[in-house]
Amino acid sequence: MTTKRMKSRDIRDNWRETLRHVENGGTVIVEHYNKPIARIVPIEEPAVSATTDTARTAARIIARARDAHGGADAFDWQIKVEGIKPFGELYNEAYIIANEHLPQVDTATTDAELAERKARAAALWEQVLPELERYAADCKAAKFTGWSKESEGPIRRVR
To answer: Has residue 95 got a pLDDT over 90?
Structure first.
């Protein structure tokens, strides 16, 4: 987009047009008595924001899966042994989080709406998968105690 030079009075009188120009990627140089005094530019979202959101979402998926499946140690052990399964517990939680803002599925839900929900979940899954793979690698590296085939005893992660 282009850079516009505008007098402060023109910006005030044409504020919406100025914002639209900036919103579309343009820059406005503000002049006061023909001297440049400021620049209005679009906000660039920091890369950390997307990374942080992805990490938080992945942590939320992991926490929900742990709660739903026997606690942190037992679930982490399961991930150590079985790895991340497509359409497993973590994917189910990703599906729920991706669609939690929508009403419950019922008999009135159309096939197109179901396909949309699946696509939303698949997109979220692709976004958080690198974080989940790091979590799985941590689980594989962890040591656990207290489990045996005979006792089916409680699993404890060695810290």
So the answer is: yes
Identify the DSSP state of 109: -
- Rounded to 5°, the CA angle 65-124-142 comes to 40
pTM passes above 0.85: no
Show the tokens assigned to 138: 């941590």
pLDDT tens figures, 97-134: 998 888 888 888 899 999 999 999 999 999 999 999 99
- What count of Cα atoms within 13 Å lies in the side-chain half-sphere of residue 4? 19
- The torsion angle over the Cα atoms of residues 92, 96, 97 and 102, rounded to 10 degrees, is 160
Nearest to 64 by CA among 157, 141, 128: 128
Q: Where are the domains of the chain?
A: 3-40, 47-158
Q: What amino acid is encoded at 36 in this protein?
A: P
3-40 CATH choice from 2.60.40, 3.40.1620, 2.40.50, 3.10.50: 3.40.1620
Q: What whole-number distance in Å separates Cα of residue 133 and Cα of residue 23?
A: 37
